[in-house]
Automatic annotation (TrEMBL):
Gene3D superfamilies named in the record: P-loop containing nucleotide triphosphate hydrolases
Top-level division of the source organism's lineage: Bacteria
Domain AAA+ ATPase per the UniProt entry, residue ranges: 47-198
GO molecular function, one term: ATP hydrolysis activity
Signal peptide start and end residues: none
Record-linked InterPro entries: AAA+_ATPase (IPR003593), ATPase_dyneun-rel_AAA (IPR011704), CbbQ/NirQ/NorQ/GpvN (IPR050764), ClpA/B (IPR001270), P-loop_NTPase (IPR027417)
Protein name: Denitrification regulatory protein NirQ
Stated family: Belongs to the CbbQ/NirQ/NorQ/GpvN family.
Length: 287
């Protein structure tokens, strides 16, 4: 990309920052928890730096990636990592097809190859859930080379100039493993905290504009208490998930608040003591 164009994209991200939250709420997108996270992420994309988003489940990592895709009008290819992820899941696979009466072998391109060729965003979710031996195939994609030799076809693929990689991890979760240094060093890392205070209020009122101010205040108080108990080590991170809170608000438009929170938040927790603590906190605001 021409350096002048890069500078213009950076200026655009700064110029639009003040109004980006409102636009993204309207699109069902991400709202930055501080004045610089959104802008810095955009600048990193413009500078072709692979991004690593770190934060608890429900903090908005996927929504942030979707909002970057929306902002740049750039399609996104997604990979959901697990222990079953292999090279074929990343790069594609060979299959047999019939073409004009002849049987031929065709290669079906995977998300990495498609994103590189088309200049899409490649979103790798829960990258630390993948087996460590699977990911080195991406090293040349993530560093300055931005290229890949497809082991299934022998094709050498050079990334489109707009190609971007965004990855996300939930640190310390069951089933995850620490990223090796060779992989981690290819990213710039951003911590994505839960929304709170005015930012959370902005999201709630943007998504549920017809909700009464009293109900919004109740949910904000409950959210604050849940986050406090997570910080105190009495609740799992999932209890403070913004995603779950918004699910509860959606339910609360049709059923009582207490039941909505029970279904959307408490019942997701594995520990019975934690479920009971959530509902006790709710009771203090629903007298």
């Amino acid at each position: 990309m021409n350096p002048i164009v890069e500078n213009e994209r950076i200026k655009r991200s700064r110029r639009n920052h003040a109004s980006s939250a409102e636009l993204l709420i309207q699109a069902g997108g991400y709202v930055s928890p501080n004045p610089y996270l959104w802008e810095d992420a955009l600048i990193s994309v413009v500078l072709k730096k692979p991004i690593l988003l770190k934060g608890p489940s429900g903090s908005g990592k996927t929504r942030l990636a979707q909002s970057i895709s929306h902002y740049f009008e750039q399609p996104m290819q997604s990979i959901n990592c697990s222990v079953d992820l292999d090279a074929e899941s990343l790069l594609g696979f060979k299959t047999i097809i019939s073409n004009h009466g002849e049987t031929v072998i065709e290669f079906v391109e995977g998300p990495v190859v498609q994103a590189m060729k088309k200049g899409h965003i490649l979103y790798i979710d829960e990258i630390n859930m993948a087996r460590p031996e699977t990911l080195p195939i991406l090293h040349s994609v993530l560093d300055h080379r931005r290229m890949l030799t497809n082991p299934f076809t022998g094709e050498v693929i050079y990334a489109h100039e707009d190609f971007t990689v965004i990855s996300a991890i939930n640190e310390g979760y069951v089933g995850t493993s620490p990223m090796n240094e060779a992989l981690k060093n290819r990213f710039v890392s951003f911590t994505v905290p839960y929304l709170s205070g005015n930012q959370l209020r902005e999201v709630i009122e943007g998504i549920y504009p017809d909700t009464s101010k009293e109900k919004v205040e109740t949910f904000l108080h409950i959210s604050h208490d849940l986050k406090q108990q997570v910080m105190n080590g009495l609740l799992s991170d999932e209890a403070a998930s913004v995603r779950s809170l918004l699910d509860a608000m959606g339910l609360a438009a049709h059923i009582p608040v207490k039941r909505a929170i029970q279904y959307a938040i408490a019942e997701k927790l594995d520990d019975q003591i934690e479920r009971r603590l959530v509902m006790e906190l709710v009771d203090t605001w629903l007298k």
